[in-house]
Amino acid sequence: MATNTQRRHSLVSIIVIVGLLIAFAGPIFNALGLVGDLAMIAAAAFLLVLAGLRVVNQYERGINFDPGEIFRDAQSGLTWVLIVFQKMIKVDMRIDTIDIPSRK
User: Fold this and answer.
1) In b/e form, how buried is each residue of 47-84, taking b as 16+ CB within 10 angstroms?
2) Nearest-10 Cα torsion for 91, 93, 94, 98
3) Which is it for strands 53-56 and 72-74: parallel, antiparallel or unpaired?
4) Mean pLDDT, each 10-residue run in order, the chain (104 residues)
5) Cα 26 from Cα 36, distance rounded (Å)
6) What is the model's pLDDT at position 22?
7) Are 86 and 63 in contact (CB under 8 A)?
8) Is residue 65 within 8 Å of residue 91, measured between CB atoms?
9) To 5 degrees, how large is the angle CA 51–CA 57–CA 50?
């Protein structure tokens, strides 16, 4: 399960990647003959779409918290989360057994 620190690190890495893309991709796209601004916007949008992909394992359920709604259940498989507005929490559905000492 991802902790808040891991989520922050992934968001920071997305911001850094988009910043580097904007800083360095403009001259590269212009050298290739592509329109620099439109290509950078398309690449940034593509990175945001990739950042929103989540994999929910078979033994988990994903709960998407949407603005205006309480939640939406995500079954196992590949799902997409709009990272700006939605938040996903994965819940482990496996049974966890513990030993309880007897009372004497």
Assistant:
1) eeeebbebebeeebbbbbeeeeeeeeebeeeebebebe
2) 70
3) unpaired
4) 53 69 67 66 77 86 82 83 83 89 85
5) 5
6) 66
7) no
8) no
9) 10
Q: For residues 91 and 66, what is the distance between their CA atoms, to the nearest angstrom?
A: 17
25 conformational bin, left if phi > 0, alpha if psi -120 to 50, beta if neither? alpha
Confidence (pLDDT) at 73: 82
The pTM is what? 0.55
Look up tokens 């007897």; give the residue: 102
Strands annotated E in 1-104: 53-56, 60-65, 72-74, 77-80, 87-92
Cα–Cα distance, 48 to 51 (Å, whole number) = 5
pLDDT at 3: 54
Using CB atoms within 10 A of its CB, is residue 14 exposed (0-12), middle (13-18) or buried (19+)? middle
